[in-house]
């Protein structure tokens, strides 16, 4: 990790515009067509599982977890995880992942999915989802569909279609 004065905290409603700009810079306009983004359409991220990284007052990173259903099983979707390019490769992203995973575990969640690079996310315990057990609502390279069991054995009975869980803003 860096010697920068880094602060991790829950995302606040006022952070929305800065996070949207961060996502725009990090992922570009094509992000909206990706399957993981489509899963999040109309689905509110869970406030207790959404964090930002700050250097001073500048938001340099963001992570969100949103609710999913996999068949009849509740789960979470990690992402997007974004870090400002000027602050990449110094551990901010993994710090955000670890913070979100620990918060999800403490809240009693059992599974977290994501679409991403296994070499990076394996450091937090994510593994490639066994093939042909779940169905995404759009194309995904099966080697990039990753899962983390927060509760031992939670993955064993899992199968079905992955869908986002729509919630009202009041929820």
Provide the fold topology.
Layout: E1 6-10, H1 16-27, H2 35-40, E2 51-55, E3 58-70, E4 73-83, H3 92-106, E5 111-115, H4 118-121, E6 127-128, E7 134-135, E8 145-149, E9 160-164
Parallel strand pairs: 4-5, 7-9
Antiparallel strand pairs: 1-2, 2-3, 3-4, 3-9, 5-8, 6-8
Shape: globular
Tell me the quaternary state.
Answer: single chain
With helices defined by DSSP (H or I, 4 residues minimum), what is the helix count? 4
CATH architecture identity:
3-Layer(aba) Sandwich
User: Total domains, how many?
Assistant: 1
- The percentage of residues in β strands lies in 25-35%
What does this entry look like structurally?
By secondary structure, the protein is α+β, with helices and mostly antiparallel strands. The chain has one domain (6-164): Aminopeptidase (3-Layer(aba) Sandwich), CATH 3.40.630.30. It has helices spanning 16-27, 35-40, 92-106, 118-121; strands at residues 6-10, 51-55, 58-70, 73-83, 111-115, 127-128, 134-135, 145-149, 160-164. Strands 1, 2, 3, 4, 5, 6, 7, 8 and 9 form a 9-stranded mixed beta sheet that branches. β4 (73-83), α3 (92-106) and β5 form a beta-alpha-beta unit. The chain is globular. The relative contact order is 0.19.
Which short descriptors sum up this protein?
22% helix; alpha+beta; 9-stranded mixed sheet; 9 strands; 171 residues; Aminopeptidase; 31% strand
In short:
With 171 residues, this protein is α+β, with helices and mostly antiparallel strands. It has helices at residues 16-27, 35-40, 92-106, 118-121; strands spanning 6-10, 51-55, 58-70, 73-83, 111-115, 127-128, 134-135, 145-149, 160-164.
């Amino acid at each position: 990790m860096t010697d920068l004065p880094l602060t991790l905290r829950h995302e606040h409603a006022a952070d929305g515009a800065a996070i949207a700009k961060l996502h725009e810079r990090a992922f570009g306009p094509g992000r909206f067509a990706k399957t993981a983004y489509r899963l999040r359409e109309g689905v509110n991220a869970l406030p207790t599982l959404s964090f930002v990284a700050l250097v001073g007052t500048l938001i340099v990173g963001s992570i969100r977890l949103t609710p999913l259903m996999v068949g009849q099983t509740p789960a979470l979707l990690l992402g997007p995880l974004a870090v400002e390019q000027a602050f990449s490769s110094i551990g901010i992203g993994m710090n955000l992942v670890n913070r979100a995973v620990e918060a999800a575990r403490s809240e009693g969640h059992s599974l977290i999915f994501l679409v991403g690079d296994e070499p990076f996310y394996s450091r937090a315990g994510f593994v490639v989802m066994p093939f042909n057990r779940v169905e995404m609502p759009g194309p995904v390279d099966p080697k990039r569909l990753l899962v983390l069991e927060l509760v031992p054995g939670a993955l064993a009975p899992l199968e079905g279609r992955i869908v986002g869980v729509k919630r009202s803003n009041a929820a």
